[in-house]
């Protein structure tokens, strides 16, 4: 599960993917287990949910390069594109509205575009979190 955003710009609308991962880590009792993994240039935490082993990932790169971290982590943890969930902001959704999307295009989102390019696939499931238009 990769929370897309601009690392270090906490609390901004475009880093809502990382905020969702922080909340998920707290709910899965993994909030204290984040570590900086230089192999994929990301903060990583491992968690278990309903018998599934999860790799939580917050790329330490700018949004338009998030895919490099996601692809590196996929290789390290032997994950295919269909195993990956991307959590990201969506300007076209009302604030707080959440939609799950299976595969497809990036729809103008630079972080998703970067992931599609780096993984050479658009099969990733997306959790689109509405941030509305300014």
Automatic annotation (TrEMBL):
GO molecular function terms listed in the Swiss-Prot or TrEMBL record: peptidyl-tRNA hydrolase activity; tRNA binding
EC number from the UniProt entry: 3.1.1.29
UniProt keywords, alphabetically: Hydrolase, RNA-binding, tRNA-binding
Matches recorded under InterPro entries: Pept_tRNA_hydro, Pept_tRNA_hydro_CS, Pept_tRNA_hydro_sf
Database matches in CDD domains: PTH
Keyword tRNA-binding: yes
Domain of life of the native organism: Eukaryota
Keyword Ribonucleoprotein assigned: no
Family to which this protein belongs: Belongs to the PTH family.
Name of the molecule in the record: peptidyl-tRNA hydrolase
Annotated source species: Pampusana beccarii (Western bronze ground-dove)
Lineage: Eukaryota, Metazoa, Chordata, Craniata, Vertebrata
């Amino acid at each position: 599960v990769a929370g897309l955003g601009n690392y270090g710009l906490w609390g901004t609308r475009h880093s809502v993917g990382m905020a969702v991962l922080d909340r998920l880590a707290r709910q899965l009792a993994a909030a204290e287990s984040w570590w900086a993994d230089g192999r994929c240039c990301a903060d990583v935490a491992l968690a278990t949910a309903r018998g599934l082993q999860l790799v939580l990932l917050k790329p330490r790169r700018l949004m338009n390069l998030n895919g490099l971290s996601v692809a590196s982590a996929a290789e390290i943890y032997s994950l295919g594109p269909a195993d990956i969930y991307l959590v990201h902001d969506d300007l076209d959704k009302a604030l707080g509205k959440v939609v799950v999307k299976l595969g497809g295009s990036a729809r103008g989102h630079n972080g998703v575009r970067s992931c599609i390019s780096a993984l050479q696939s658009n099969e990733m499931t997306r959790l689109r979190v509405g941030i509305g238009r300014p």
